[in-house]
Write a structure and sequence with these properties.
This protein is α/β, with parallel strands linked by helices and about 500 residues long. The protein has 16 helices and 18 strands. It folds into two domains: about 150 residues, Rossmann fold (3-Layer(aba) Sandwich); about 300 residues, Dihydrodipicolinate Reductase, domain 2, CATH 3.30.360.10. Helix 7 runs antiparallel to helix 15, helix 10 packs across helix 15 and helix 11 packs parallel to helix 15. The structure holds 6-O-phosphono-beta-D-glucopyranose. The site of 6-O-phosphono-beta-D-glucopyranose has 5 residues, from helix 10.
């Protein structure tokens, strides 16, 4: 059957993984229902899953294969990006299995090991399996030990490939990350470990690499001679919802800054990789992360905030302290902004300002490159009053695309120059919709392509940057309140004002 989602003129062959099972631990959780199962359906719908594919759920539920299939179907229908085709789901349904068990249940893991072997005979999986750990970090050691005990993580013993996918948070500081990495590495070989930072699966984030390294235009000016500063913003309008259990004591810096924002910084600042593969990309990113320097006066350049009640989209919303299951007097930050410098020849003197927060006016993620002003203007001061700095803005989401801001003559008899914007919009330039980040990353796991997955060293280097900030905050004081629906606490504006700058209003 031909695939209606593919353009028949497209001669590029899509890469389809070899036969395998995807084993999801914690399959009843939010991530599995909202992201993973819909991604499996979308991949199948795009013809990107192999014939010998099995979806195997593992959780502490009294379910049979049919119950799981029904729940998975509902999740896929609700979260699918591509249109619903019953016949596609039917094919997945026929190869959906469920294994009830708790993580300390030896019998359940023995059964799982045997099942993975049997699936080769019954479904032609070749015995291959990817284990997705969509579980709380404190359950990692138990599950990993079970895998080691049963030999199910061993490529040689099982005569197949076995991979593991680990979701963030990768620890809560450097020491715990090293411990966790050690645990995973004891059971799986390094090449078989895939750490998910879903920002790397976003098309627009990958486009940053295309923009920089496939063009001649930008790279020659991508340095401190021409760039004044870089601003990376990840703003969300949502609050923490029902996630207090995870978010309390984690906060914005550990939840987002340590991973998504530092990865965006690394991709923005890195040198050209010798080729587009995992080893070369990671080598360049790690150089940047290792060169990151925190300001001497950290207290003035690491701002934290917590949302107070306010108005968002015409609706009154609670402050953080009034959210379900948040401890009274909690000092967990829901907003974090920092200045970082990258101590390399390319970036000497160029500050990178990073900020993230919940309950900000709208959901937007962008990387703003702010250029220096022209060294000389042959126009009168009054004619250039409304001319700002040139900016290149990579809009990660929503309105995926790139904006270039530059000065242009205002029509008329004077030589007035004002800022204008030139826009590239994914939605307009391409007919194909961007795949979801999880779709792309799941496919890469099954293909064994690790280019978009951070490795241990990156995770550890990122904690080395975040730990001193967390230590400073833990030593006293509390986050500054900001009203829901505003762009964070005043301290964030003051931080930039101190450097003679202002935040872009995305
Ligand atoms: C997750 C964080 O990693 O990213 C969440 O844990 C956050 O707190 C989410 O809401 C945002 O992802 P996206 O893709 O919607 O920007």
């Amino acid at each position: 059957m031909s695939n209606p989602l593919r353009d028949p003129r497209d001669r590029r062959l899509p890469k389809v993984p070899g036969p395998c099972a995807l084993v999801v631990f914690g399959v009843t959780g939010d991530l599995a229902r909202k992201k993973l199962i819909p991604a499996v359906y979308d991949l199948a719908n795009r013809g990107l899953l192999p014939p010998g594919f099995v979806l195997l759920g593992f959780a502490r539920r009294d379910w049979g294969d049919g119950d799981f299939e029904q729940i998975a179907k509902e999740a896929a229908k609700k979260g699918a990006r591509t249109g619903w085709r019953e016949e596609v789901w039917q094919r997945i349904a026929e190869a959906t299995k469920f294994l009830p068990g708790s993580f300390d249940d030896d019998d359940a893991f023995d059964q799982l090991a045997a099942m993975l072997k049997d699936l080769d005979a019954s479904h032609g999986t070749g015995g291959n399996a990817a284990f997705y750990l969509s579980i709380p970090p404190n359950a990692f050691p138990t599950v990993l030990k079970q895998m080691e005990r049963t030999g199910m993580a061993d490529n040689v013993q099982t005569n197949s490939w076995r991979r593991v996918v680990v979701e963030k948070p990768f620890g809560h500081d450097l020491a715990s990350a090293i411990e966790l990495n050690g645990l995973v590495d004891d059971v799986f070989t390094a090449d078989d470990v895939f750490r998910i930072d879903h920002y790397l699966g976003k098309e627009t984030v990958q486009n940053l690499l295309a923009l920089r390294f496939a063009n001649e235009l930008f790279e020659p000016i991508w340095n401190s001679h021409h760039i004044d500063s870089v601003q990376i913003t990840m703003a969300e309008d949502v609050g923490i919802g029902t996630r207090a259990g995870f978010y309390e004591g984690t906060g914005a810096a550990r939840d987002v800054l340590q991973n998504h924002l530092l990865q965006l910084l690394a991709l923005t600042a890195m040198d050209e990789p010798v080729q587009f593969d995992a080893a070369a990309l990671r080598a360049e990113k790690i150089k940047v992360l290792d060169a990151v320097r925190l300001p001497k006066d950290l207290a003035s350049y690491a701002v934290r905030g917590q949302y107070d009640q306010g108005w968002l989209a015409g609706e009154r919303v609670n402050g953080y302290q009034a959210e379900e299951n948040v401890a009274a007097g909690s000092t967990t930050e829901t907003f974090a902004a920092v200045r970082l410098d990258v101590d390399t020849r390319r970036w000497a003197g160029v500050p990178f300002y990073l900020r993230t927060g919940k309950r900000l006016p709208r959901r937007v993620t962008e990387i703003g490159i702010v250029f220096k002003k022209a060294p000389h203007l042959p126009f009168s001061k009054s004619d250039t009053e409304e001319l700002g700095a040139n900016q290149l803005v990579v809009r990660v989401q929503p309105d995926e695309g790139v904006t270039l801001r530059f000065g242009s003559k205002v029509p008329g008899t004077t030589m007035e120059v004002r800022d204008v914007a030139m826009d590239f919009l994914y939605g307009e330039a391409f007919t194909e919709n961007s795949p979801e980040a999880y779709e792309r990353l799941l496919l890469d796991v099954l293909l064994g392509d690790a280019a978009l997955f951070p490795r241990n060293e990156e995770v550890e280097a990122s904690w080395r940057i975040i730990d001193p900030i967390e230590e400073l905050w833990a030593s006293g004081g509390e986050p500054e309140l900001y009203r829901a629906g505003e762009w964070g606490p005043k301290g964030a504006d003051e931080m930039l004002a101190r450097d003679g700058r202002t935040w872009r209003r995305p």
